[in-house]
Amino acid sequence: MNRASLFVPTAPRDWLLPVLAALLVALTLFMAKLEPLFAAAFPHLDVVVYQRESFLQLTLDHLGLVLVSSLISIGIGGAAGLFVTRATGREFEPMVSSLAAIGQTFPPAAVLAIVVPLAGFGFVPTIVALSLYGLLPVVQNTIAGLGSVPPTTLEAARGTGMSAAQILWRVELPLAMRVIIAGVRVSVIINIGTATIGSTVGAQSLGTPIIAGLVGDNIAYVIQGAVLVGLLAIVSDLLFERLERRFRYGA
Amino acid sequence: MIELQGLTKTYAGKNVVEDISLRVESGEFGVLIGPSGCGKSTTLRMINQLIPLSRGRILLGDEDVSRLKPEQLRRRMGYAIQSIGLFPHWTVAENIAVVPNLLKWPRARVDARIDELMNLFHLEAGEYRDKYPHQLSGGQAQRVGVARALAADPEVLLMDEPFGAVDPLTREVLQNEMLRVHEQTRKTIVFVTHDMDEALKLASKVAILNQGRLVQYDRPIELLVDPADGFVSDFIGKADLGLKLLSRRWVDQYCRPPCLERDSGAGRHSWEVDADGRPLALHGGRLSDDGEARTAVNGEWIATPEMTMKEALSRMVWFRVMVLPVIDQAGKLIGEVTMEGVMGRQP
Amino acid sequence: MTASSDRAGRLVANRVLLTLWVAALLASALLPFAAMAPNRLVSGEAIKLIVALTTWQSAGLALLALLLALAALSRPLSATQGLRLTLVVAPLTLLLTLYALGDYAGRALAEASPAARVSQGAAFWVLVFCTLLMIVDAFQRLRAPLWVGGAYGLALVAAIAGLFASGQFNALSILNEYFNIQDAFADQLLTHLRLVGLALAPALAIGLPLGLLAHRRPALRGSLFGTLNFFQTIPSIALFALLVAPLSALGDSFPLLRELGVKGIGAAPAIIALIMYSLLPVVRNTHAGFAGVAPATLEAARGMGMTRRQVLWRVEIPLALPVILSGLRIVTVQAIGLTVVAALIGAGGLGAFVFQGLGQYAIDLVLLGAVPTIALAVVADFLLQILVAISRPAGGR
């Protein structure tokens, strides 16, 4: 390794992401190896590592819930945000904006609890609830991001003879991207949290050992699930922080 | 009276203000001027201790200000700045009343003072008293800013480019008001600007600063005729030095009795006046030297005694006459200024 | 530029209203308005709107629907008249829908077995949702001031509360459920509010000074916000759960603390977690509020001879207050929602009904926990929004 690179200044928390990501992967794969540790800490428990399902499977299930629902949220939310900022959909903008604002005052857990039973318990209904809630920050930030492009920039773009589609792709979306990604970040972080509660409505996730632990009075299960899901959330957040940084133009 | 003795400010080992000594007498209008970064604002802000000074002494009257608590000192000095800084959550009246309230004046006295100041700055109290800053125009806001600075009848008024952010027309109006207010209150003023015309118009004495040092401190006319060095003459600007000189001269200094009959005076022109002595028309007095031409006087090609000669000359050129009638407030002809007069009199 | 000429030539003046109208119509035609079940635990038979309503109710609803369609068109009414008509007709539609549901439940149960239940269906929810959105949209277009909306909302809430009080809905399954747990409901509601209050008070007591500190000491900002964001990112259930272990250890080793309520399961971990969640918005908004005070204003304040304390209390705090209160609004709404999850670690609150209901597949019980929570969040949001508006300097917007 080049010695000089040791002295390249980096953002203060840049080391955090690889370290926590490695920790997440290691714990997901080798949680069972920590059995002696948990056994020493909780001597009164018979079983100290959650065994009904592997942590790898639980993590993948959790990621599956979040990924599918977030993709749906981004697709629908982005399209809705785009529609109401174009001339044809502008009339719907105040309505959609206030819907997104009011909707986000709804507690995600309450939304989950109402929507999932209506659609029948399990994976798909949970996806529906997560996507529905995750839509709101995406819509809100898409509208805010596209609205933050300075009118003078748009006028200049029109002045150079760009078509509406070219202005959207080359000027508006790149300039709005940082704010849009910030919305996706909020949406994904909320979904990671809500998916944890999804285990109470029949969708298996990293919340499953937590709930099992709380119900069965097994604190070791609770810690195992909580540490993994906490790490998952923080690693995702740091990833989005990096992504946002790439779209920061000057400001 | 305010006196700076060897005032010095050091930032990171560099003197941004170096050994400035000057004295603004009671009732004088002192202006600090110089290019940006010359230390004029820093100097001003050291006077009311918004910036602590590194070396030197400041005397207010015969008191050393370092003996006073900064807050007490600032309440004795009015302070007006370019960005005005009106308190957005308070009405015009509450803004003006800040310092009197800090000094715990009785309510009635504060109210009376607000009315007095709004009157002084021609702000209709009924209309503006309860308005909020964002409802004012730039010029009105700056009037309130200056009124606020004057509210507690301070011994000294400090002003940091107060008219720098308003449009040229408003600036001229505000400058005229400032002159009038100074005339009426005889406050000691220290005024920072980078606009030479503003300095020449307002100042009784101008301090020119360059790179933290005081280059020249003199009456405006002396700066013009006797600049201390090349920097000063460059800064004043050589191109229209003559016009700048005339901007420090007033019509009443050049005024002479009017010629009411043809060929009676030096010029070959005469004035036609009505029964009340108001000028109606000028006979002759055009560049073509046509003695027969009759030019009707209108409201614009006239001069008043308090007008600068620069303005008077400008009007002569614009209306193509060699002579302007000088009238008093009632519109009566009291004299005339002529092109020959402009040329003939040594400044 | 061409918007006005477009509008003049168009048949539909209010496309939002028309969209909502079509959605409500489709839902009424295709989705069940109510469900009729032989007992509490089985899902019932779907009942369509047209079946559930009496003749006069159907006729009334049809008339109201016609009026709403009229309001959406550009002729013969002007745009403003159309919006005013919406503001009269939409709430009537809402009230009629509510009334009809209760009325149907009463009629259906009169001839069914005592265990039978009638609950609301998807079409009912869509109708409620669409009429509420019609009202919101009309207010937005009329640009009515906040207090007019508030008064209108209050009147609407009073009308609905009147329907409840008159016993119109007593036959509905969800109210049966409510009467079963009436006392527990009041208890859990109070517990919910108490948890929120007990978390918010310390969050403000810690967060406000921290926010001021972040403003005064820029060097601290990065690490402070980083740490608080860390808490904010961890999923609520994980943070609640992670606090269970250390607190139970603490409670086990110190009986005195245990007596004070510090133990693994219950209110203590919930309150601590809620405080941790609330800190970031409080600190961030406090900092933003102070940072938003114009430098010129501060310079003027100091130049006038205000002391530091006077500058803080007379200038900085009043000017920062709206932003600080917006932070309070965020954390209040957030805390009301997170407290639902706190029920999982035995802290109680309305979430207890939600998870109890989910465990028993008793949807009405879930709704009894979830709907009041949502209502609480929305009401708190609205009230704090008004408080923020009031705290703005009188003229300054």
Please characterize this protein's 3D structure.
- The complex is a heterotrimer of chains A (251), B (347) and C (397).
- Chain A is an all-alpha fold and 251 residues long.
- Helices cover 73% and strands 0% of the residues of chain A.
- Chain A contains 10 helices and no strands.
- The radius of gyration of chain A is 22 Å and the shape is elongated.
- Chain A starts with 15 loop residues before the first helix and ends in a 5-residue tail after the last helix.
- Mean pLDDT of chain A is 86; it is low at 1-10.
- The two termini of chain B are 30 Å apart.
- The relative contact order of chain B is 0.11.
- With 347 residues, chain B is an alpha/beta fold.
- The model of chain B has no long low-confidence stretch (mean pLDDT 87).
- In chain B, the strands form 4 sheets. A 6-stranded mixed sheet of chain B has the order 6-7-8-3-9-10, with helices on both faces. In chain B, strands 2-1-4-5 form a 4-stranded antiparallel sheet, with helices on one face.
- By secondary structure, chain C is mainly alpha-helical.
- Chain C has 16 helices and 3 strands.
- Chain C has helices spanning 3-9, 15-30, 49-52, 55-72, 79-110, 122-142, 146-165, 173-216, 218-233, 236-253, 255-259, 267-291, 295-303, 308-342, 351-360, 363-391; strands at residues 34-37, 45-47, 117-120.
- In chain C, helix 8 packs antiparallel against helix 9 and helix 10 crosses helix 12 (267-291).
- Chain C is flat, with a radius of gyration of 26 Å.
What is the gist of this entry?
The complex is a heterotrimer of chains A (251), B (347) and C (397). Chain A has 251 residues and is mainly alpha-helical.
Q: What is the terminal-to-terminal distance of chain A?
A: 33 Å
Order of strands, widest sheet of chain B: 6-7-8-3-9-10
How far the N terminus sits from the C terminus of chain B, by CA atoms, comes to 30 Å
Rg from alpha-carbon coordinates of chain B: 24 Å
Biggest β-sheet strands, sense, barrel of chain A:
none
Gyration radius of chain A, in Å: 22 Å
The interface involving the most residues is between:
A-C, 44 and 55 residues
State the shape of chain A: elongated
The SSE order of chain A reads HHHHHHHHHH
Mean pLDDT of chain B: 87
Q: Spell out the helices and strands of chain B N to C.
A: EEEHEEHEHHHHHEHEHEEHHHHEEEHEEH
Q: By helix and strand content of chain B, what is the structural category?
A: alpha/beta
DSSP helix fraction of chain A: over 70%
Q: How many helices of chain B?
A: 15
The low-confidence runs of chain A, each spanning 5 or more residues with pLDDT under 50, are 1-10
User: How many strands, which pairing sense, and closed or not: the largest β-sheet of chain B?
Assistant: 6 strands, mixed
